[in-house]
Amino acid sequence: MQEKLIKQWHSVRIRFKSLLSAEANLIPPAMVIMVATLASRMLGLLREVIFSSHWGPARLDAYNAAFELPDFLTNLFVLGAFASAFIPVFARYIEKGEHKKAWKLANVVTTWMFVILTLLSIIMFILAPLFVRYLLVPDWSTAKINDTVTILRIMLLSPMLMGVSEVFSDILNTFHHFTASALAPVFYNLGIIGGALILVPYLGLIWGLGLGVVVGAAMHAGVQFIPALRVGYQFKPDFDTTTDGVAEVGKLAVPRMISMGVTHIDAFVDTNLSSFLAAGSVVMLNWATRLAQLPVGIFGAAIGTAAFPSMVQKAAHKDHAGFYEILFKNLVQVFYFTIPSAIILIVMRVELVRLMYGQGGKLDWFQTLSTAFALALFSISIPAQASIYLLNRAFYALQDTVTPVVATVISVVLNSFLSVILVMTVHHFSVLGLSFSIAQFVNMILLMALLYGKAGHFRFHDFPRQIFAIVVASSVMGAVAFFFEKFLSQHFFNQARVRGVLLETVIVCSLVGVLYVILAEVLGCHALSDYLARFRKKHASKTA
């Protein structure tokens, strides 16, 4: 009897693992990443809800400002250098069957990345007071600056852990194993939430939140460790810079690092300008940004990450027609999801801010409206932000990391210039969303223009028609959402109660979401139905 139960459990476990596995091709990789990213983003919002309900904007300024520098190191050396430069070279060796070269390359790049991150973290630890006082928040009080320095020094352990984790992610993605790497951000947010709920009561706000970030980074790496070993990764420290592929990775990495460094100037400028404004401006700006980033992460990052290995393969085989077919198919999917998402965030901005950050009485009405207005301005550029993620990876697949830098530098300079002018004129943090959105659209247009002819002149085919259908369907959906929300708030739901706001938001978003899907199909954009058809086809082939 016991053996029978064990066999049944083993059978169920295998079937469940197969069902959830993107590698099995039953569920498309983008869908796996979308679901995991949605879970991660929702946990990220839960994290902010907990923070806002317990401490409010003013007490969280130090945490949000300190987060900028470790995040800068992570983006510059981990997400920047490793992801975009390492995968094309590593994948080429794997495609050719040169596994020994591939793993040696992985060890050399990982070793040097870890060493560099450690040295930079030590330097930043020592110079933390100077960075905080003169770069991030020059107009804050001495006490607030000291708190920011303390939490920054604690958080500096996280870039090294994130570096190790990114190695696991990129190797797994190269082998089209997306599940573990997609779940890593979920565990990252769980670590930070654990810091807030468990560590803060015992260690205080600064140490509790700081160590929560470190624990989250360790969990980010830990969940991918076993899957990485299963595909053959065995880390051995290797300092041999003459290894095949190292010079090529370095050549590809430098422009991407410059791009990421320049991009982060936006965050430094925004934090610096916000420090001269009312208390809590840094936090409220961060809250608005996080809500606007939700659809970018769920759809833009997920689709771009899933499409990248396929674009790399097409580019490696000089299949230009196949390359552009993948690119435009995924661009349609990006716009299909992000354009209506942006409109919903704009129309329902106040309700969403109240639900996310208005609990606990720590956010007054003026702060609610300010955060909501910033959210609307940031949301304008959601489609552009999401498409940039995919377009950049199209260039990386072609082993061109210079062109995205050009577009990024232009957009960052424009954003910084507009940010200073608008803040000096309006004296409110929300206008930073407008400057950011303008710059993102400029970035997207530049990338599209520069991509033209990069791998053979591409044909748009029915791309413009589908985008037109998406825009029309989204516009009608937005108008219906606006008037329907006004009708419900005036006649049915008490806006003074959270339950009323929640029910109204759920009803409006659900009904207009269905309306959008129907309108898009009627107008000729079949992105969702085609996606589901491919899923059913794969399901049928697997179960046949």
Characterization of the model:
- The protein is mainly α and 544 residues long.
- It contains 21 helices and no strands.
- The model is unreliable at 12-26 (pLDDT under 50).
The run of helices and strands is HHHHHHHHHHHHHHHHHHHHH
Backbone shape: globular
Distance between the termini: 31 Å
How many strands, which pairing sense, and closed or not: the largest β-sheet? none
Q: C-alpha Rg, in Å?
A: 23 Å
Counting helices, strands and paired strands, the structural category is mainly alpha
Number of helices: 21
Q: What percent strand?
A: under 5%
Question: What is the gist of this entry?
Answer:
The chain is an all-alpha fold.
How are the secondary structure elements laid out?
Elements: H1 2-20, H2 29-54, H3 56-66, H4 68-95, H5 99-126, H6 128-136, H7 142-155, H8 158-174, H9 179-203, H10 205-230, H11 246-274, H12 281-316, H13 320-347, H14 349-357, H15 365-379, H16 382-397, H17 403-426, H18 431-451, H19 463-491, H20 498-522, H21 527-543
Helix pairs in contact: 2-9, 2-12, 3-7, 3-12, 4-5, 4-8, 4-11, 4-12, 5-8, 6-7, 7-10, 8-9, 8-10, 9-10, 11-17, 12-13, 12-15, 12-16, 13-15, 13-16, 13-19, 14-15, 14-20, 15-18, 16-18, 17-18, 19-20
